[in-house]
Amino acid sequence: MDVTLLGTGAPAGLPRPDCPCAACAAALGEDARAATALLVDGALLLDLTPGAAFAAARAGRSLSGVAQVLLSHPHNGPAVEVPAGLPQPGRVPDGRELALLTGHRVRAVALDAPGTGYAVTGPDGQRLLFLPPGGAPAGLEEPAESYDMVLADVVGRPDALAKLRAVGSVGPTTDVVAVHLDHDVPPGPELRRRLAAAGARAVPDGATLVVGAYEEVPDVPRRTLVLGGARSGKSVEAERRLEAFPDVLYVATGGTRGGDTEWAARVTAHRERRPGSWRTAETCDLVPLLRGDGPPLLIDCLSLWLTDAMDSVGAWDDAEWAGGGERALRERVAELTRAVRATRRTVVAVSNEVGSGIVPATASGRRYRDELGRLNAAFADECEHVLLVVAGQALPLRG
């Protein structure tokens, strides 16, 4: 079974008409995208979009063999005038299955938002899932058979991938292709980087994909360190890297700090931003978590872990520091980095980059700055991917 993507963009296309944003200005050549529509084996058209016949011709395909046109968008009528020779578009009721004379079977998938998803099984048994923009499956049952290919709004609804992964519908061999691409993410390298973190990829309009064929998609990094200054966007970047995965354990090393209203507001903002399926553990005891098996870990952040570790060894007192505190801290850091090296879990850790700022006025401040620099370097050595976030922009340092 093959799929030709007549378009891969949002309903308004990319660039959006009359939009002056930077992403739309950069959406040129292969990064320009028409509204998403799929042609399956030349026989099934999923979504009818403006210029579908011309898009098919540019891709070396024809719509003359289309036996069925199905709509995924929430409206009930065709989005555009139906070209001559095409059957009238329709919709399959949720949970019902449609059998085509070509041997394809199409089952309508109920969503948690308006619209209809379609699970298509080809004559040879290959399976693909197509979801409309802003939609995620509802009422999934575990365990489920994995799809060979999933085409979904990965950028707009990463939690849809998390739901599918949670029940086994998306597995290690599933080819995840991002469609309905809009101007939320700059096209080009930044889009590819974000999709790779979710285990997905994007293809240009007109591409024909073979369902079930192996595609070399960048592996999701198992260990990632995200560095950045204050309010740089480092925590948002770290959360973004795991939002397409289920059952993430968010490890908060800062505690609650009773009575500190500003800190409480920060904690609340972080909690509201995280997916509801994530769990939270407030602890600085990271080594047992890294040594055990379980879901992905998001550690936010190492700088607060270091504060706790330096407190425990008396690092702020010169006499205690010289009398064994420094050696004890080195052992704590070495134990942590050994656990990172040996861990079998997916780990994303956040830390502050403070070495580029002003020199602290106090000896204890300088000591903390130096030790955090050493900790960041040691942790980064054990990670496949290291990012530096500046002004909300993630700069890859490794991987």
Q: Could you characterize the architecture of this molecule?
A:
The chain has 399 residues and is of the alpha/beta class. The protein folds into two domains: 209 residues, Ribonuclease Z/Hydroxyacylglutathione hydrolase-like (Metallo-beta-lactamase, Chain A, 4-Layer Sandwich); 176 residues, P-loop containing nucleotide triphosphate hydrolases (Rossmann fold), CATH 3.40.50.300. The chain is 28% helix and 20% strand. It is built from ten helices and 18 strands. Strand 6 and strand 7 form a beta hairpin. The protein starts with a strand and ends with a strand. The model has no long low-confidence stretch (mean pLDDT 91). It comes from Streptomyces cyaneogriseus subsp. noncyanogenus.
